[in-house]
Structure formats: C-alpha cells, structure tokens
C-alpha cells in the first residue's frame, strides 16, 4: 500500500472513532510522525492530506527543512527536546508538542523572546501529571509562549486496549487544567499513535500522531 492509501485507511478509522465519541472526523487533527522518512515521503503525506508533520530529532528536522520536506503543511516538533537545541526549533516548528519541564519552558520563553515571536507549545504530561499543573501556571506568566494544549506518550501497552484507562485519565486532567487555569481556551489534547489512536480518540483525544500506520515500519538498521 502507498502512503496515500495508508492515510485514507487511518482517516477512516479516525472518523469511526470520532463518531463513536460523538464528534466528527473534522474535529481530530492528524499529525504524520515522519521520523526516518525522507523528504519525498513527507511531501506525499502532505499531498494526501495530513494536517501537519511531526519530527523527533532536531538534526533530521533541520536537514529536511533545507530540502523543503514540509512545504505545504505545518511542522510540529514531537520528540524529546534538549535545552541546548531549543534555539534550532523555536520559530521553525509551528507547534512544539513536547515541553515536559519548567526548565525547558523557560528556555523556550528565552529563545522566543530573543527572536521576538510567540511560540505555540503543548505541555507534555508525564505519567501522573502532578508537574503539569505547576508548568501550566508558570506558562501563563511567560509572554513568548502560548500553551495550546497537552500532549502525552502513554506507557508501552502490554495488553490490547491497555492504554484506554490512561487516556481517559489524561482527558480528565486536560478538562481540569483547561477549566481551572486556562479559562477553557486550550484546544488540543495530543494522544494516540499507530497502535492506539482509535482508543485515544474514544477517550477524547483530538490530535493523533501517527507514524508506522502511514509510512510503514521504520528501518532502524540504516
Ligand atoms: C514516533 C512517534 C509517534 C508515532 O509512532 P508510531 O507508533 O510509529 O505511530 C508518535 N509520537 C511520538 C512522540 C513519536 O516519537
């Protein structure tokens, strides 16, 4: 199957899960997780209608930016971000999904101020979520970052549908923080990958990050 056909299949499954949770397919944002896939694959995914592409590694993202891999769609940064690489991502990514500490948050604020822009971010929730509320309160005070929502990467699934309970807990945290700290202005709850995006949508996700189901298995031997 081609990337285009894979995306059509993913969209159908997304639409089904959206309907089951009383929403429409238009309510769910599809990020193609394009790590280890080349610029041509990225362009095919954009032509086939992904809403954004998400990258994990700064070096790979920078190289593919130079090849115009993301032209035509917003670029998201979804991977672990080291503080010393913040400078290479702020102002390049439309959305940095993976801000998981207050230290990283302050670093993004500093760099966005330097570039005189406002950087859109998601706060990454680690298991439990206790630190997220503090980060959300801090972020409100930072003029050069704008929190658009929350993101999470669940634990590795050991049984089918094993993450459903985790997704539901995460959705409750999103609703809680959105109401309490953001006046219900947050828009995105990013959760769900190739193996579990339908469950994530059923639990309330409105942004999924799908790699393998779009681009095929990644070849880690290269
Ligand atoms: C690679 C990756 C994905 C996509 O994973 P698949 O299982 O290939 O769909 C989603 N989110 C993050 C943060 C990733 O690194």
Which labels suit this protein?
222 residues; alpha/beta; 8-stranded parallel β-sheet; 8 strands; binds pyridoxal-5'-phosphate
Major beta sheet, strand line-up: 7-6-5-4-3-2-1-8
Q: Identify the overall geometry.
A: globular
Q: Bound small molecules, which ones? A: pyridoxal-5'-phosphate
**Element pattern in H and E:** HEHEHEHEHEHEHEHEH
Query: How can the largest sheet be summarized?
Result: 8 strands, parallel
Report the portion of residues in β strands. Answer: 15-25%
Mean pLDDT: 96
In whole angstroms, the N-to-C terminal distance is 22 Å
Report the uncertain regions: none
Q: How many DSSP-defined strands?
A: 8
Radius of gyration: 17 Å
Binned, the helix content reads 40-55%
Number of helices: 9
Based on helices, strands and strand pairing, what is the structural class?
A: alpha/beta
Description:
The chain has nine helices and eight strands. With about 220 residues, the chain is an alpha/beta fold. Strands 7-6-5-4-3-2-1-8 form an eight-stranded parallel β-sheet. Helix 6 links the parallel strand 5 and strand 6. The longest helix has 19 residues. The two termini are about 20 Å apart. Pyridoxal-5'-phosphate (PLP) binds next to strand 8 and helix 9.
């Amino acid at each position: 199957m081609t990337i285009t056909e894979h995306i059509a299949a993913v969209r159908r499954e997304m639409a089904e899960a959206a309907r089951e949770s009383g929403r429409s397919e238009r309510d769910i944002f599809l990020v193609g997780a394009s790590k280890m896939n080349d610029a041509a694959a990225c362009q095919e995914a954009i032509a086939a209608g992904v809403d954004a592409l998400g990258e994990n590694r700064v070096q790979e993202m920078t190289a593919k930016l130079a090849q115009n891999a993301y032209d035509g769609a917003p670029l998201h940064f979804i991977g672990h971000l080291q503080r010393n690489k913040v400078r290479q991502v702020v102002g390049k990514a439309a959305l940095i999904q993976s801000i998981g500490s207050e230290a990283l948050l302050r670093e993004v604020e500093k760099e966005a101020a330097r570039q005189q822009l406002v950087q859109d971010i998601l706060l990454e929730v680690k298991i439990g979520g206790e630190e997220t509320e503090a980060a959300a309160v801090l972020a409100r005070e930072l003029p050069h970052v704008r929190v658009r929502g929350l993101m999470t990467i669940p634990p590795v699934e050991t049984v089918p549908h094993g993450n459903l309970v985790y997704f539901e807990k995460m959705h409750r945290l999103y609703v809680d923080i959105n109401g309490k700290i953001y006046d219900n202005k947050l828009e995105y709850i990013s959760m769900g990958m190739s193996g579990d995006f339908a469950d994530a949508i059923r639990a309330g996700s409105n942004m999924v990050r799908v790699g393998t189901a779009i681009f095929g298995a990644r070849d880690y031997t290269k």
